[in-house]
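Protocol step 4 of 6: structure prediction from sequence.
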Amino acid sequence: MSDEQSQKYREAAEATAREQQEIQQRIDRLDKAAKKKEKKGGEEGDDAVQAGAREEPETPMPDQHLEKPGIEAEMKLKPRFMAPDYKGSEKLQDRVAIVTGGDSGIGRAVAVLFAREGADVAIVYLNEHEDAEETKRAVEGEGRRCILIPGDVRDSAFCDHAVERTVAELGGLNVLVNNAAFQEHVQKLEDLTDEHLDMTLRTNIYGYIHMARAALPHLSEGDSIVCTGSETGLFGNATLLDYSATKGAIHAFAMSLAQNVASRGIRVNVVAPGPVWTPLNPADAPPEKVKEFGADTDMKRPAQPEELAPAYVFLASPVCSSYVNGAIIPVMGGPTG
């Protein structure tokens, strides 16, 4: 792959980030004009639930609003992704994975645990270069190789390029994690412009299909695709109309593809998170809502990315989930909907 071609995809990603910022700025202006300050979440005095190996941050979260696409390095409270109590056991030894949206958030945590389980990882991301470099350092800190591939998954040619580069530089492909996403709320459907809708649909569902189509010729028996769905794809969300629609589509696509490729020994599954502390939400919701993010779950707090990543390891590893196919694994902090 030529440097000129890689630069073309990098420049296209920068242009996409600017488009996302324009969509965000329009919604921010509408929110400000409406002057709505709803209070939502747990009642005062409710205690967050801690059920893991270590205590995770609790609501209230920092009331911060990030410019899209959202830089994890700029977050006041950094998401936890290292999972220090998780011990690897070669579940993905010498396998190669692509993680889209792997620069930060859930994708970063997944990349780190994949590396801890013995995989080399290609990080596909838009233009969050600082975050991507941090993820690369973390993966290499686990003793595995990592390459960074900036570009826009809306472009099928870029997705082909990302897979080809991964195979060329890392020696093959065994796992695709479809995780990249665009999210921007609207207060009513009439506020959803064609440009906004197109950005969400083409990033969240077209991008997943583009990447899966590019990856499948390189996958074989024992390999897998894991998609990031959402509770919104199961239960809907009043202000995430287009985003919820794409997440429902992702669930249906994954279940359908699972049936389509089962005879080839390739498994396709979904992790459906509830609220997770990543740059995605502070780059969408206004500060007063970010502050109460996750407070309305049974856990009374959002998840940290390190709490999601083991589910991806489980679904990616043939020694863990060889008979799991077409499943939607909810990681939502309790029943919801």
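Step 5 (inspection) to follow. The two ends are 46 Å apart (CA to CA).
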